[in-house]
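Journal club side-thread
Mid-discussion, someone asked how the predicted structure for our own chain would compare to the paper's figures. Pasting it here so we can look after the session.
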Amino acid sequence: MAKVSHLETNVQRVVTEILRDEVKDNLGFITITGVKITNELSYMYVYYTVYGDELVLEKTHNALERANGFIKNQIAQRVKMRKVPTLIFKYDESYNRGQKIDNIIRKIK
């Protein structure tokens, strides 16, 4: 399990570098919040947040889907893995949930 968590950290760093330096599409203000690789190394979930409204979120999601193959190829070149899992981008809603909870708490006070 420790190897998988180390691999997740490396992939998160590499994906951040790829998005920052090499993806030409306009991704907006994106942050990679985490990477989760399944134990059987079949799927690699990359969680991200984007600053902006729903339109910015949709544009960013579409840009990530278009760049998926390129990003996976770059991960294969930079991270030592026998097999690169299927890459799936997922919007991380934890910030939004935290904001809702924070607003509820502020109303109670």
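Post-session note: The longest strand covers residues 29-37.
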